[in-house]
Amino acid sequence: MKLTVKLEQWPLKVPFRITGYTWEFLDVVLVTLDQDGKVGRGEAAGVYYKNDKPEGMVRQIEAVRKAIESGLTREAAQNCCPLVAHAMRSTARCGILRQNSPDGRCGSWPGSNSRIPC
Asked: How far apart, in whole angstroms, are the C-alpha atoms of residue 80 and residue 75?
């Protein structure tokens, strides 16, 4: 499995404002997993008030690159690295789920038979 991680800036159509903050773009980390022609993707922007930034997520993803490229399972992705930020785990897990899904969708809500897009 090949892991690609990159940072991008996504412009917003209109500025997003909340108390004391204004964003005109989002910094995001993009994760792509590719194996045998099947591609899974995930993205995350972090949480500003927890100082959870994409640059830090990239470092954390790179720290577990070997495990991911070795074929990390869904279960292991949910439990690997308890100190790793939730956004990083979600991003990488979404890429793993999409990569393993025949229809490119992440899975289903608990208790639901419907499949949800990631």
From this structure: 9
